[in-house]
Specification:
The protein is α+β, with helices and mostly antiparallel strands. The protein has four helices and ten strands. It has helices spanning 4-22, 37-45, 129-132, 144-147, and strands spanning 25-26, 56-59, 64-67, 74-80, 89-94, 100-108, 111-116, 119-120, 122-127, 151-152. It has an eight-stranded mixed beta sheet. Strand 2 (56-59) and strand 3 (64-67) form a beta hairpin.
């Protein structure tokens, strides 16, 4: 026969497992250089929120972060392949009281991809169409302090 503490412990453990099963996790493909130690610092320095409706949610890959609805989340990956010279649009984004980060911006079928230019390790942010259609992507400036932890080797012209 089970004693009360064991029953209570079992019930609490079961409840915890049920609740953790409800926590949304965003599946993300790990970047090739995600093991760079700087990526851990970048992810730890990222904001909890990118604005209303874009609260941080869990991911299942190293050196990643996501915000918003897990079915259409804004996803950041640190350790992507650094970009070489490109003819794509390169945008310098200055953060309030912070650094300027150069991003190469590509729109593809409504999804927006921002990839740091001239920084190692490189960081990529994907804003899905569902988010881009309903809000500005100006929240990219909130990532500046974390992304500035990467080494700047080049900048936009």
């Amino acid at each position: 026969m089970l004693h009360r503490p064991t029953v209570a412990t079992t019930a609490a453990t079961g409840a915890l497992l049920v609740l953790s099963g409800c926590a949304p996790t965003v599946p993300v493909t790990v970047a090739p250089f995600a093991t760079d130690p700087v990526c851990a610092s970048v992810v730890l320095a990222l904001p909890r929120s990118l604005g209303e409706g874009l609260e941080r949610v869990d991911t299942d890959a190293q050196a990643t972060a996501a915000w918003g609805d897990p079915r259409a989340a804004v996803v950041l990956r640190c350790g992507v392949e650094p970009l070489g010279p490109t003819t794509e649009r390169c945008q310098s984004v200055t953060t309030p009281q912070g650094p300027t980060i150069d991003w190469v911006v590509v729109e593809d079928d409504g999804d927006w991809t921002f990839t740091t230019y001239g920084r190692v390790p490189a960081v990529e942010l994907v804003v899905p169409r569902e988010v881009a259609e309903t809000r500005s992507t100006s929240f990219v400036d909130l990532l500046g302090p974390a992304v500035a932890l990467t080494e700047q080797q080049r900048s936009c012209l």
